[in-house]
TrEMBL record:
Keywords: Disulfide bond, Signal. This is C-type lectin domain-containing protein. The keyword Cytoplasm does not apply. SUPFAM superfamilies: C-type lectin-like. Residues 1-19 form the signal peptide. Residues 24-131, 136-246, 245-344 form the C-type lectin domain. CDD domains: CLECT. Gene3D superfamilies: Mannose-Binding Protein A, subunit A (3.10.100.10).
Length: 360
């Protein structure tokens, strides 16, 4: 890269992001958890994700309004299909009226009764339907003759077939395989299917942050909320409450470019290639990196052999560092990228086309 361009990068476009890469917004309207999620995704980025205690303080300081019944954040225990790779889509679900109701917070497994779904205690014995991907040209379905609890039914299916029947497509294929399903005696009985509520909690935006701040005796329900005593509680997701959204200032671009083209793309469409100046920013950018389609993503980190130092294109000084060790020597055409594990690497920019992360 020419010296004139280097000067332009350092001096001509200073967009310092030494602060936070995201901010919180309190919404005083009462909505269910899913309605709040939809609102946040439409108007901001998502329901609030909280990665550490610093975030928690920032979130609580983002409003002076009171919310005695709690305010939703983006943490919940969602439904999941037993067969890996099959995603749960609420819009395609077939719940019975008033279901799921999760009585006493004990009903986290799903049975099918006359084609519709109910949640029930996993310890109850029912017949079940297995699915075998190895027999899709024939009849991949096995209807058990005996009753088992949900966990034993899952183990049985995984041992002798592939898994419990999972996903709307498999259920539709099952009905095609058994067009007279409703005329069988067993069709009047409840049968386990491969849908269950995961025991762990997940963030609405897909982040894997493990930070939790539960109040004593919590959680008991399925969606998380902040409370006035500055901890987290939980409640039925269908209850209506105010909520917190967050607005992300970084974005992963799933296009592959050399570093210089990535720089101009960010400046033309967003703000700049992202800079990382502290550990909190590192963790936040690292979560976005996990969704990249290339093994590394470009950062706004560049080496100048003329002045012999690394710098951020936003004109931030490189104080915080997260280099992978060992690293090769510095070269005039080197730029910084992030590995999937979050460490930084030095790459020849003209030899690598990578995804990249922009700051807004």
């Amino acid at each position: 890269m020419q010296w004139s361009l280097l000067v332009f990068i350092v001096m001509g476009q200073c967009s310092s992001i030494g602060g936070q890469l995201y901010d919180y917004h309190f919404i005083g309207e009462n909505k269910t958890w899913e309605e709040a999620q939809e609102y946040c995704r439409k108007n901001y980025t998502d329901l609030a994700t909280v990665s550490n205690q610093t975030d928690m303080k920032r979130l609580l300081n983002s409003t002076t309004e009171k919310y005695p019944d709690g305010a939703w954040i983006g943490l919940q225990r969602d439904w999941r299909w037993s067969l890996p790779g099959v995603e749960y889509n609420k819009s395609e679900s077939n719940w019975s009226k008033t279901q799921p109701d999760n009585v006493d917070d004990q009903e986290i497994c799903v049975r099918m009764n006359d084609g519709t779904w109910d949640d029930d205690s996993c310890s109850k014995p029912y017949r079940f339907i297995c699915y075998d991907v190895r027999n899709i040209s024939g009849n991949p379905f096995h209807i058990s003759g005996s009753e088992m609890n949900w966990t034993d039914a899952q183990s049985y299916c995984r041992k002798d077939n592939t898994d419990l029947i999972s996903g709307v497509k498999q259920l539709e294929d099952f009905k095609k395989q058994y067009p007279d399903y409703g005329n069988h005696d067993w069709s009047q009985e409840a049968v386990w299917i491969g849908l269950f509520r995961e025991s762990d909690w997940s963030w609405s935006d897909g982040s894997n942050f493990s930070f939790r701040s539960w109040d004593k005796g919590q959680p008991k329900k399925t969606c998380a909320m902040t409370t006035l005593n500055k901890t987290w509680s939980s409640d039925d997701c269908n209850n209506k409450k105010p909520f917190f959204c967050y607005n992300d200032s970084v974005i992963l671009i799933n296009q592959s470019m050399i570093w210089e083209d990535a720089l101009y793309y960010c400046r033309d469409h967003h703000g700049d290639l992202v800079s990382i100046t502290n550990l909190d920013q590192q963790h936040w950018v690292q979560e976005r990196d996990k969704m990249a389609s290339t093994p590394y993503v470009w950062l706004g980190l560049r080496y100048t052999c003329t002045l012999d130092f690394w710098f951020w294109v936003s004109d931030e000084t490189v104080r915080y560092k997260n280099w992978a060790l060992p690293q090769s020597g510095d070269d005039c055409n080197m730029s910084g990228a992030m590995d999937r594990n979050g460490t930084w690497v030095k790459l020849i920019d003209d030899d690598n086309q990578l995804n990249f992360i922009c700051s807004k």
